[in-house]
């Protein structure tokens, strides 16, 4: 069967024709729901731990969010960067070359996962010591993260497979697999903790097993439904230049995720100084905000695929159209999110902790009342960062992460332990605004340059 015939019989979506707004919304909604269910792993762990194991367990698991973001964000950034080249060659209708890049991506993803499992397993406790974890909570956090590190190979597998599907315009299938695995995760949490009598380790085992199931389902689906992604022996012939191009996009994207995560780890370390109530309240707020931000993340992943395909097809005008309409949709959603967290954050926190824990709830509400006004800036980061990545530029998006890290670190150094908790909260708005400083001007420069020249770079 030819590649063109194969495309008619799969859920591949060519985003180089049709209404940009409609295509972006159709792609974004499954991405958003998929991100919700991906977040659900750690959220479910936090909810069950907080409700059945108490404040200390919530503080232990919830406070690992920034560290989890650092670790999984690196793998996610790598696979997203690799997928950009896949989407560009798909848009250019160079299917054989596309499959070669898929094969090289598999090599690189597996290699990184193994290296990270070994390195992070060795450095587990020293990292936690640097984050100011106290001895009372250290055993739980160390055990939880150790199991997560051991399961990074399945995390890398799912990220890579899902990224390949999204590169070809299929954002629905990864969603279905995440729904299934999220339900399994909750069931295993209940089984391990409530009925099995396990502590936080039960949450970690549930997460790894559920992620492994989503990776297996994704692989089976590609084998059965995506012949265009079926790889031959010659596709796996190692190519240093191809790996170099993949790393040139993947590593800056991974660094961008990791730089952002390092900033949140610094903030978490500052919060840990204030004690377990602040750790639990900040953790609950972070979980709620992560859910709210899944719309921004979904728009970012969508625009990367949209831009990658249209850039590969040489349609610069459609790139600019897509960015404009996405910016409008992000601003509209930001207003809704601002209203939601300002008036209802108290009640959302009840998901994670009993209403009787008034101090924890006060901390969560204080965080939201400090940062809510800056959501339009946060949403715009995902838009322009992913647009530039879709265009094939990895360095400037990473530079945006450097600006973000510098601003967040400066605020923490100035206020942590010296002022109230609200001062630490201001590190997020400062970081979000700073990240946009290199992104928007460079996007304008790049699109104007290529529009004038009437060509693209591949």
TrEMBL record:
It is found in: Cell membrane. It is a multi-pass membrane protein. Its main location: membrane. One of its GO terms (cellular component) is plasma membrane. InterPro entries: MATE_fam, MdtK-like, Membrane_Transporter-Flippase. The chain crosses the membrane at residues 67-90, 102-123, 143-168, 175-198, 204-223, 244-268, 288-307, 328-353, 365-384, 391-417, 429-446. It holds the Pfam family MatE. The keyword DNA repair does not apply. GO terms for molecular function: antiporter activity; xenobiotic transmembrane transporter activity. Keywords: Cell membrane, Membrane, Transmembrane, Transmembrane helix, Transport. This is Multidrug resistance protein NorM. It comes from [Ruminococcus] torques. The lineage of its organism: Bacteria, Bacillati, Bacillota, Clostridia, Lachnospirales. The gene is norM.
